[in-house]
Design goal:
The complex is a heterodimer of chains A (about 180) and B (about 575). Chain A is built from 6 helices and 9 strands; from the N terminus they run βαββαββααββαββα. Chain A has about 180 residues and is an alpha+beta fold. Chains A and B meet through α1, α2 and α6 of A and β6 of B.
């Protein structure tokens, strides 16, 4: 019961200044570390979507998400575990051009990891790989062992739920209907 | 010039008036001078109470809001003016008090540059407000200010901060008032779930020993009558949290007293004896529950609240009734079978009798040779006051004694700092309470410690000629901490003794009549003098230095682990 697991918190908000702070202070109060964070405009114009991952106990994440959902500028907040989600991260790897050229089995490597080459110049080569954390990490480890990685960056998780349509659009249209009915 | 083209300052004041504001508590300063200049022309419609410190202005706005149900308004300058309001804002957040704090801010081109008296008010205020917004352009005023009042006053009320850049105060705007009455991301009153209402009613109908916990949510929702109808129909005994006191009259037959650390014995014991516990507009604060592992484990728990994040936060519940108590209580009441629980409601009497013998009698009728007791002063003042008096308290022993021994006949009669426990709250809150309910008697009980935290507000009382009865329970100690030191820290009185000034002389220096009383024989007459004199009065009661508040549930102990007195 009291074991921590990784939760993905998905938040839809109005696009107002200072919202990220309002959200992160709720994590801070409960001493939850944010593992990854991704913020971008959602499919609905004017609505922003936050995808945050954190290790927490079920009881704790439940309370935290309710406290986030209650903030005035938050349209909807909910959480999922990995089973409910299709999720992805993207990683970029910069390696030495000279060492990469000398590396044996480049084709196998690219195929094995389904990586893409984004940039080739005299100094360096930039690879891109998307996938789960373990997958982007595996390529990082393999490159580190063989030729070294000059620079590495991984994005925060983005995710969509497997089962339902984006719940927010339903909610917004229901709200609009209610408002019109009251007028 | 078009008469609707006005300065931002005037737009702000017109919006306040349109929102029904007639009283502002404030303190001017560099970044609100244009606003105060404009206020000069609006002084016939907006009464400004000049506090002596911005914290005082904020607590006064809280007191005003708590007694009147209206939103309290605070106006301060930037930087230190704004940071001085933080304690009051935090207090309002904890105790769900609707206030709007308007702080001046440096001109927007200077924002972020560490300009003179610039501080990131929004960043500081976000964790302790329902909403905080910075106005940088005069065009935003109509929308933002109306939105502030809508958010502060609806749903579970709370504080809102509006940070108002000086260039937006000076700039011109073609002003039209626009009432904000909905925000798509904010649902102040949820629709009650019919299934939950049915389940709650069924549980109560099946209960043999139902017990209701009444919180401030009942008062904030204006559901006092609905509460009584609910309790009456199924004959449910009830007890109140400190902030829920006065939702039911003190002498109401089903009112069994106060919950919590210094609450009444019966309600605390019965919490662990009832079979269905019905919490209404309260949040299971640790001062109410004690150790959660030993709290109401035997009972089915029904929780009525307007704030979903409170349901299940501290205590797991069996039925959640999410909604406005004014709607949900009658909905459940309709489904209740009329019932009587004579034996159960009568079972509180034994606990009450035990508490009376072991605690109350000694406190309100002490033996003649003992020094004045805090409880006897409170009860005598309460008896002498008219039945509609408002009780305001500071924090500590004075507060616990006041709320325990004062009697209530009307709702919105208790103004005290609950969740935050802010010493220094009392005196300025009493100012706001008097402004918010000028026709009611306001009795402030304070201690020698808390009084001196905001003592300067005596100047506000003097200037506004406010009729506030101030009773200082002076034991020359920080009494509540001293009590803990006596009970749990081997009487090592670390930093709790106080060398005090002559409070009565200080009051006189402010033109406030005062009297010191140390003898029991003089108490009645001193209280009579206080009530018979018009205008403010300070009664300094020299009470027992080592007075104790009992009963007491030690912090972290089970709610049934009650200390009744010195063993």
């Amino acid at each position: 019961m009291n074991t921590k697991q990784l939760y993905t918190v998905i938040i839809f908000s109005e696009n107002t200044v200072g919202l990220l702070n309002q959200i992160t202070i709720i994590f801070t109060r409960r001493q939850l570390n944010i593992e990854t964070l991704s913020v971008s405009p959602s499919a609905i114009q004017g609505v922003h979507k936050f995808t945050i991952t954190t290790f927490a106990e079920k009881d704790m994440i439940d309370k935290v998400v309710k406290q986030i959902d209650k903030r005035v500028d938050i349209l909807k907040a909910y959480y999922n575990t990995d089973e409910d989600l299709v999720h992805q991260e993207i990683a970029l790897y910069k390696v030495s051009a000279e060492l990469f050229m000398k590396l044996k089995g480049v084709e196998e490597l690219i195929r094995k990891y389904n990586a893409r080459v984004l940039e080739v110049n005299e100094d360096c080569i930039v690879l891109e790989k998307s996938g789960h954390y373990e997958e982007t990490q595996a390529l990082f480890l393999e490159l580190s062992r063989s030729i070294g990685v000059l620079q590495f960056i991984r994005s925060g998780r983005i995710a969509i739920t497997k089962s339902k349509v984006e719940r927010l659009s339903d909610m917004l249209s229901a709200m609009e209907k209610k408002i019109q009915a009251n007028q | 010039m078009d008469k609707n083209v006005i300065t931002g300052s005037e737009a702000l004041l017109r919006t306040l008036i349109a929102e029904g504001v007639d009283t502002i508590f404030g303190y001017p300063g560099g970044q609100v001078i244009p606003l105060y200049d404009c206020l000069y022309d609006y002084s016939d419609r907006l009464k400004h109470i000049l506090a002596r410190h911005e914290q005082g202005a904020t607590h006064a706005a809280q007191g005003y809001a708590r007694v009147s149900g209206k939103t309290g308004v605070v106006l301060v300058t930037s930087g230190p003016g704004a940071t001085n309001t933080i304690t009051g804002i935090a207090d309002a957040m904890m105790d769900s008090t609707p206030i709007v704090v308007i702080s001046g801010q440096v001109p927007s081109p200077l924002l972020g540059s560490d300009a003179f008296q610039e501080i990131d008010v929004i960043g500081i205020a976000q964790p302790i407000t329902k909403w905080a917004y910075q106005i940088r352009k005069p065009e935003e005023i109509a929308w933002a200010v109306s939105r502030a009042f809508y958010i502060a006053s609806t749903g579970r009320p709370g504080p809102v901060v509006i940070d108002f850049a000086k260039d937006a105060q000076i700039g011109l705007v073609d002003y039209v008032y626009e009432k904000v009455s909905r925000i798509r991301s904010y649902q102040p009153v949820p629709e009650a779930d019919a299934e939950q209402i049915k389940t709650a009613a069924r549980l109560i109908n099946e209960a043999e020993k139902p017990f209701a916990l009444v919180g401030q949510g009942v008062i904030l929702g204006g559901a006092e009558k609905e509460l009584l109808a609910f309790l009456e129909k199924a004959d449910i005994p009830a007890a109140a949290t400190m902030l829920g006191l006065s939702a039911m009259p003190s002498d109401y037959r089903l009112n069994k007293g106060m919950l919590g650390m210094h609450g009444n014995v019966g309600p605390n014991r019965k919490t662990n004896d009832c079979d269905v516990l019905i919490a209404i507009g309260m949040r299971f604060d640790d001062r109410v529950t004690g150790n959660l592992q030993a709290y109401a484990r035997q009972a089915k728990i029904i929780h009525f609240d307007i704030d979903l994040s409170e349901i299940g936060k501290n205590v797991p519940v069996d039925v959640s009734v999410w909604g406005d108590a004014k709607e949900t209580l009658p909905a459940v009441t309709r489904l209740l079978n009329p019932a009587t629980h004579t034996e159960w409601t009568g079972s509180f009497a034994a606990d009450e009798q035990e508490e009376y013998e072991k605690v109350v009698e000694k406190e309100i009728h002490p033996e003649g040779n003992r020094p004045l007791q805090m409880g006897e002063v409170v009860r005598k003042v309460s008896d002498a006051a008219e039945s509609d008096a408002i009780l305001v308290t500071d924090v500590g022993q004075n507060q616990m004694m006041a709320v325990r021994y004062f009697r209530y006949n009307h709702t919105r009669s208790v103004v005290t700092s609950g969740g935050l426990g802010t010493m220094g709250f009392g005196l300025p809150a009493a100012i706001g309470a008097k402004e918010g309910a000028p026709d009611r008697i306001v009795c402030l009980f304070t201690g020698d410690g808390g009084l001196q935290m905001t003592l300067q507000e005596l100047g506000t009382i003097m200037q506004e000629k406010l009729d506030i009865k101030i009773i200082v329970l002076n034991n020359n100690y920080l009494g509540m901490v001293r009590q803990w030191q006596e009970l749990f820290f081997d009487k090592r009185y670390s930093a709790t003794t106080m060398a005090n000034p002559d409070f009565a002389a200080i009051a006189r220096a402010y033109g406030i009549r005062s009297r010191k009383v140390a003898k029991r024989e003089e108490l009645d007459e001193a209280i009579a003098e206080m009530f018979n004199s018009s205008g403010a009065f300070m009664l300094v009661a020299e009470v027992e230095t080592h007075g104790m508040v009992y009963p007491m549930v030690p912090a972290g102990a089970a709610i049934t682990h009650i200390i009744m007195g010195k063993s």
